[in-house]
Amino acid sequence: MSLHILVTNDDGIDAPGLLALQKALQEVGEVTVFAPDHNWSAAGHTKTMHKPLRVNQTMLPDGTLAYTSTGAPSDCVALVVLGILDHQPDLVVSGINQGANVGHDITYSGTVAAAMEAVIFGIPAISISLDSYESEDFAYAARFAARLVKLVLERGLPPNTFLNVNVPAVPEEEIAGVKITRLGKRVYSDKLVERQDPRGRNYYWIGGEPPSGVPEEGTDIWALANSYVSVTPLRLDMTDHQMMEELRRWELET
Ligand code: MN
Hints:
By secondary structure, this protein is α/β, with parallel strands linked by helices. It has one domain (4-184, 215-248): Survival protein SurE-like phosphatase/nucleotidase (Stationary-phase Survival Protein Sure Homolog, Chain: A, 3-Layer(aba) Sandwich). The protein has helices spanning 16-25, 73-81, 105-108, 110-120, 139-155, 220-225, 241-248, and strands at residues 4-8, 30-36, 55-59, 65-69, 91-98, 125-130, 161-167, 177-180, 185-196, 202-214, 228-235. The strands form two sheets. Strands 3-4-2-1-5-6-7-11-8 form a nine-stranded mixed β-sheet, sandwiched between helices. Helix 1 (16-25) crosses helix 5 and helix 2 (73-81) packs parallel to helix 4 (110-120). It is globular, with a radius of gyration of 19 Å. It binds manganese (II) ion. The site of manganese (II) ion has 7 residues, from strand 5.
């Protein structure tokens, strides 16, 4: 019995990283591509509840049949797991995103959210991003994804845990290796931009330069800064166990 791999992303069905990923994973299992019909970057973990979802078939540039939905990356995963196709995925892989998802990015990322959605359904998942908004050279990242997918299928992942991968956008021969990392600290440089519409009303953009980060050793941000592939195991259980102890001393429970 061959293994079913669901490939999705948040950059949308036309993204080159999606095509590269599905190509690479075809050698590992039976790949189904089910992705949003437009770019949902920074959509976070969405559940579309107040409008209908449409699903369409399409063709990838290489002729492969694929599916799109009007929903978010996490909606795409839910649609598949809830039975829109005739089989359940054994693994969900989301990416390859254009732009790193490190540190606090993971709370904004639609790429990561798709992996989280899979984990909520008890399906192992990987999210993978390339550290560039411009590069379309996904060859190394795609091959690394295939290697990691084989390992995950062989060894499994604990419940509630998934792997978040970031690949440096440097020529392959400059990649220093692979590091298992923890989340670093992003530094955002967002600014509030105020403009006026033709009717004289103000509207706003939250934007600015791409974020930087604190390159503390052992973090995902540090790994990318030193040309290492970063693999971070993430858990959906965000409980702060230390703070539980501290909170108990607040005597709220008495
Ligand atoms: Mn994206």
